[in-house]
Amino acid sequence: MAKIRAYKMDGLGNDFVIIDRRKNSTNLTKEKIIKLGSRTNIGFDQIIFIEKEEKNCFPIIIFNSDGGEVSACGNGSRCVAYLLGKDLNTKEVKLKTNNRILNAKIIDDLKVELEIGKPLLSYEEIPLSAAINPANITIEINNKKFTSGFCVNVGNPHIIFFVKNCFEYDLKTLGPKIENHKLFPEKTNVTFAQIVDENNIKVNVWERGAGLTKACGTAACATAVAALKNKFINDEVDIKFKEGSLNIRIDKTDNIFMTGPVSKIKKIDLEI
Description:
CATH superfamily of the largest domain: Diaminopimelate Epimerase, Chain A, domain 1
CATH class of the largest domain: Alpha Beta
Structural class: alpha+beta
Protein backbone atom coordinates (compact mmCIF):
# COMPACT_ATOMS: atom_id res chain seq x y z
CA MET A 1 0.00 0.00 0.00
CA ALA A 2 1.47 3.35 -1.08
CA LYS A 3 1.93 6.33 1.21
CA ILE A 4 1.50 9.98 0.22
CA ARG A 5 2.29 13.19 2.07
CA ALA A 6 -0.70 15.28 3.11
CA TYR A 7 -1.52 18.00 5.61
CA LYS A 8 -4.01 18.20 8.46
CA MET A 9 -5.42 21.58 9.47
CA ASP A 10 -8.53 23.02 11.06
CA GLY A 11 -10.40 26.27 11.52
CA LEU A 12 -12.10 26.40 14.93
CA GLY A 13 -12.22 22.59 15.02
CA ASN A 14 -13.67 22.28 11.50
CA ASP A 15 -10.97 19.94 10.22
CA PHE A 16 -9.47 19.06 6.85
CA VAL A 17 -7.00 16.87 5.06
CA ILE A 18 -5.23 18.79 2.30
CA ILE A 19 -3.46 17.04 -0.58
CA ASP A 20 -1.14 19.09 -2.80
CA ARG A 21 -1.45 17.97 -6.44
CA ARG A 22 0.59 20.81 -7.96
CA LYS A 23 3.47 18.46 -8.77
CA ASN A 24 2.16 14.92 -8.33
CA SER A 25 -1.25 13.61 -9.30
CA THR A 26 -3.01 11.60 -6.61
CA ASN A 27 -6.51 10.24 -7.10
CA LEU A 28 -8.74 8.79 -4.40
CA THR A 29 -11.94 6.82 -4.95
CA LYS A 30 -15.14 7.82 -3.18
CA GLU A 31 -14.82 4.69 -1.05
CA LYS A 32 -11.27 5.66 -0.03
CA ILE A 33 -12.36 9.19 0.90
CA ILE A 34 -15.16 7.78 3.07
CA LYS A 35 -12.73 5.36 4.74
CA LEU A 36 -10.12 8.05 5.44
CA GLY A 37 -12.79 10.50 6.62
CA SER A 38 -14.08 8.13 9.29
CA ARG A 39 -13.35 9.28 12.85
CA THR A 40 -11.94 5.80 13.48
CA ASN A 41 -9.33 6.53 10.79
CA ILE A 42 -7.65 9.90 9.95
CA GLY A 43 -10.98 11.69 10.25
CA PHE A 44 -11.99 14.99 8.63
CA ASP A 45 -14.97 17.11 7.67
CA GLN A 46 -13.57 17.73 4.18
CA ILE A 47 -10.64 16.60 2.04
CA ILE A 48 -9.25 19.26 -0.30
CA PHE A 49 -7.00 18.86 -3.35
CA ILE A 50 -4.79 21.74 -4.52
CA GLU A 51 -4.34 21.75 -8.29
CA LYS A 52 -1.67 23.28 -10.55
CA GLU A 53 -1.60 27.05 -10.74
CA GLU A 54 -3.60 28.66 -13.55
CA LYS A 55 -3.08 32.39 -14.22
CA ASN A 56 -1.91 33.16 -10.66
CA CYS A 57 -4.87 31.21 -9.27
CA PHE A 58 -4.93 27.83 -7.55
CA PRO A 59 -7.93 25.59 -8.31
CA ILE A 60 -9.12 23.50 -5.37
CA ILE A 61 -11.40 20.44 -5.39
CA ILE A 62 -13.37 19.69 -2.23
CA PHE A 63 -15.02 16.50 -1.02
CA ASN A 64 -17.09 16.00 2.13
CA SER A 65 -16.41 13.06 4.40
CA ASP A 66 -19.33 11.23 2.75
CA GLY A 67 -17.34 11.24 -0.51
CA GLY A 68 -19.51 13.81 -2.27
CA GLU A 69 -17.90 16.72 -4.11
CA VAL A 70 -18.94 20.22 -3.01
CA SER A 71 -18.40 23.71 -4.37
CA ALA A 72 -17.42 25.59 -1.23
CA CYS A 73 -15.68 25.29 2.11
CA GLY A 74 -14.88 28.58 3.81
CA ASN A 75 -12.67 27.40 6.67
CA GLY A 76 -10.98 24.87 4.42
CA SER A 77 -10.20 27.55 1.85
CA ARG A 78 -8.67 29.71 4.56
CA CYS A 79 -6.48 26.77 5.63
CA VAL A 80 -5.38 26.09 2.04
CA ALA A 81 -4.57 29.77 1.56
CA TYR A 82 -2.43 29.76 4.70
CA LEU A 83 -0.60 26.61 3.58
CA LEU A 84 0.10 28.06 0.12
CA GLY A 85 1.05 31.43 1.57
CA LYS A 86 3.70 29.83 3.76
CA ASP A 87 4.97 27.68 0.90
CA LEU A 88 5.16 30.57 -1.58
CA ASN A 89 6.19 33.24 0.95
CA THR A 90 3.27 35.52 0.11
CA LYS A 91 0.49 37.17 2.09
CA GLU A 92 -2.07 37.00 -0.72
CA VAL A 93 -3.43 33.88 -2.42
CA LYS A 94 -6.16 33.47 -5.03
CA LEU A 95 -8.16 30.21 -5.04
CA LYS A 96 -10.67 28.91 -7.57
CA THR A 97 -13.54 26.59 -6.73
CA ASN A 98 -15.87 25.25 -9.41
CA ASN A 99 -18.11 28.31 -9.08
CA ARG A 100 -16.13 31.14 -7.45
CA ILE A 101 -12.81 32.96 -7.24
CA LEU A 102 -11.74 33.42 -3.61
CA ASN A 103 -9.23 36.10 -2.61
CA ALA A 104 -7.37 35.33 0.61
CA LYS A 105 -5.04 37.44 2.76
CA ILE A 106 -2.84 36.26 5.61
CA ILE A 107 -3.35 39.18 7.99
CA ASP A 108 -1.53 37.80 11.02
CA ASP A 109 0.16 34.61 12.17
CA LEU A 110 -2.47 31.85 11.91
CA LYS A 111 -5.17 34.37 10.89
CA VAL A 112 -6.66 34.56 7.39
CA GLU A 113 -9.25 36.77 5.68
CA LEU A 114 -11.21 35.26 2.78
CA GLU A 115 -13.33 37.20 0.33
CA ILE A 116 -16.25 34.90 -0.41
CA GLY A 117 -18.03 37.09 -2.97
CA LYS A 118 -21.70 37.95 -3.25
CA PRO A 119 -24.60 35.85 -1.93
CA LEU A 120 -27.13 34.33 -4.31
CA LEU A 121 -30.66 35.02 -3.11
CA SER A 122 -33.11 33.88 -5.80
CA TYR A 123 -34.83 30.51 -5.53
CA GLU A 124 -33.31 29.40 -8.86
CA GLU A 125 -29.75 30.19 -7.77
CA ILE A 126 -29.88 28.65 -4.27
CA PRO A 127 -31.50 26.35 -5.65
CA LEU A 128 -34.98 25.55 -4.37
CA SER A 129 -37.34 23.12 -6.06
CA ALA A 130 -40.28 25.53 -5.85
CA ALA A 131 -40.77 29.18 -6.82
CA ILE A 132 -41.27 30.46 -3.28
CA ASN A 133 -39.82 33.30 -1.21
CA PRO A 134 -36.37 32.13 -0.03
CA ALA A 135 -36.44 34.65 2.83
CA ASN A 136 -39.49 33.14 4.49
CA ILE A 137 -39.43 29.35 4.36
CA THR A 138 -41.62 26.99 6.38
CA ILE A 139 -40.62 23.33 6.66
CA GLU A 140 -42.50 20.60 8.52
CA ILE A 141 -40.38 17.90 10.18
CA ASN A 142 -41.86 15.22 12.44
CA ASN A 143 -45.22 17.07 12.48
CA LYS A 144 -43.51 20.25 13.74
CA LYS A 145 -43.32 23.41 11.65
CA PHE A 146 -40.10 25.40 11.45
CA THR A 147 -40.94 28.88 10.19
CA SER A 148 -39.17 31.99 8.89
CA GLY A 149 -36.27 30.03 7.42
CA PHE A 150 -33.89 32.09 5.27
CA CYS A 151 -32.25 30.40 2.29
CA VAL A 152 -29.10 31.67 0.58
CA ASN A 153 -26.23 30.35 -1.52
CA VAL A 154 -22.71 31.53 -0.64
CA GLY A 155 -21.00 29.01 -2.90
CA ASN A 156 -23.20 26.28 -1.43
CA PRO A 157 -26.86 26.25 -0.28
CA HIS A 158 -27.89 27.12 3.30
CA ILE A 159 -31.02 27.54 5.35
CA ILE A 160 -30.94 29.54 8.58
CA PHE A 161 -33.53 29.60 11.36
CA PHE A 162 -33.28 32.34 13.99
CA VAL A 163 -34.33 30.98 17.38
CA LYS A 164 -34.13 31.91 21.08
CA ASN A 165 -31.72 29.09 21.97
CA CYS A 166 -29.90 27.44 19.08
CA PHE A 167 -28.72 24.51 21.21
CA GLU A 168 -32.24 23.48 22.23
CA TYR A 169 -32.57 21.81 18.83
CA ASP A 170 -31.27 18.29 18.25
CA LEU A 171 -29.49 18.70 14.92
CA LYS A 172 -28.38 15.07 14.88
CA THR A 173 -32.07 14.29 14.32
CA LEU A 174 -33.28 17.40 12.52
CA GLY A 175 -30.17 18.13 10.46
CA PRO A 176 -30.32 15.19 8.02
CA LYS A 177 -34.08 15.54 7.58
CA ILE A 178 -33.84 19.22 6.66
CA GLU A 179 -30.68 18.64 4.58
CA ASN A 180 -32.49 16.05 2.46
CA HIS A 181 -35.88 17.81 2.29
CA LYS A 182 -37.53 17.79 -1.14
CA LEU A 183 -37.30 21.59 -1.26
CA PHE A 184 -33.51 21.32 -1.73
CA PRO A 185 -32.55 19.52 -4.96
CA GLU A 186 -28.83 19.82 -4.09
CA LYS A 187 -29.48 19.25 -0.36
CA THR A 188 -28.62 22.06 2.06
CA ASN A 189 -26.57 23.10 5.06
CA VAL A 190 -28.66 23.81 8.16
CA THR A 191 -28.06 26.47 10.81
CA PHE A 192 -30.00 27.35 13.94
CA ALA A 193 -28.86 30.84 14.93
CA GLN A 194 -29.30 32.80 18.16
CA ILE A 195 -28.95 36.59 18.17
CA VAL A 196 -26.92 37.60 21.24
CA ASP A 197 -26.77 41.28 20.27
CA GLU A 198 -26.18 43.29 17.10
CA ASN A 199 -22.49 42.30 17.12
CA ASN A 200 -22.67 38.61 18.09
CA ILE A 201 -24.59 35.53 16.94
CA LYS A 202 -24.32 31.97 18.29
CA VAL A 203 -24.87 29.12 15.85
CA ASN A 204 -25.50 25.39 15.82
CA VAL A 205 -24.67 23.91 12.41
CA TRP A 206 -25.44 20.73 10.49
CA GLU A 207 -23.12 20.57 7.47
CA ARG A 208 -24.35 18.99 4.26
CA GLY A 209 -22.47 15.74 3.67
CA ALA A 210 -20.40 16.04 6.87
CA GLY A 211 -22.91 16.18 9.70
CA LEU A 212 -22.77 18.02 13.01
CA THR A 213 -19.68 20.21 12.86
CA LYS A 214 -17.70 22.30 15.33
CA ALA A 215 -17.59 25.18 12.85
CA CYS A 216 -18.55 26.02 9.28
CA GLY A 217 -17.23 29.06 7.45
CA THR A 218 -19.90 29.26 4.78
CA ALA A 219 -22.61 28.82 7.46
CA ALA A 220 -21.14 31.83 9.26
CA CYS A 221 -21.32 33.84 6.02
CA ALA A 222 -24.86 32.67 5.27
CA THR A 223 -26.01 33.50 8.81
CA ALA A 224 -24.55 37.00 8.56
CA VAL A 225 -26.32 37.57 5.23
CA ALA A 226 -29.63 36.38 6.68
CA ALA A 227 -29.19 38.52 9.81
CA LEU A 228 -28.33 41.62 7.77
CA LYS A 229 -31.29 41.16 5.42
CA ASN A 230 -33.53 40.76 8.49
CA LYS A 231 -31.98 43.93 10.00
CA PHE A 232 -30.77 42.08 13.11
CA ILE A 233 -27.22 43.38 12.60
CA ASN A 234 -25.32 46.04 10.72
CA ASP A 235 -22.59 45.15 8.21
CA GLU A 236 -20.25 43.27 10.57
CA VAL A 237 -20.79 40.51 13.13
CA ASP A 238 -18.94 37.82 15.07
CA ILE A 239 -20.38 34.34 14.51
CA LYS A 240 -19.67 32.25 17.60
CA PHE A 241 -18.88 28.53 17.45
CA LYS A 242 -17.90 26.24 20.30
CA GLU A 243 -14.15 26.84 19.85
CA GLY A 244 -14.17 30.51 18.87
CA SER A 245 -15.54 33.09 16.45
CA LEU A 246 -15.42 34.08 12.80
CA ASN A 247 -15.76 37.75 11.93
CA ILE A 248 -18.03 38.34 8.95
CA ARG A 249 -18.16 41.69 7.18
CA ILE A 250 -20.45 42.52 4.27
CA ASP A 251 -19.51 45.59 2.23
CA LYS A 252 -21.81 48.00 0.40
CA THR A 253 -21.66 45.90 -2.79
CA ASP A 254 -22.73 42.75 -0.87
CA ASN A 255 -19.27 41.14 -0.97
CA ILE A 256 -18.72 38.88 2.04
CA PHE A 257 -15.42 38.83 3.95
CA MET A 258 -14.67 36.13 6.53
CA THR A 259 -11.76 36.47 8.97
CA GLY A 260 -10.65 33.96 11.57
CA PRO A 261 -7.95 31.64 12.90
CA VAL A 262 -6.41 28.57 11.33
CA SER A 263 -4.39 25.86 13.03
CA LYS A 264 -0.73 25.15 12.58
CA ILE A 265 0.14 22.95 9.60
CA LYS A 266 0.56 19.29 10.50
CA LYS A 267 2.26 16.97 8.03
CA ILE A 268 0.78 13.48 7.83
CA ASP A 269 1.19 10.36 5.71
CA LEU A 270 -1.85 8.76 4.12
CA GLU A 271 -1.93 5.10 3.13
CA ILE A 272 -3.64 4.79 -0.23
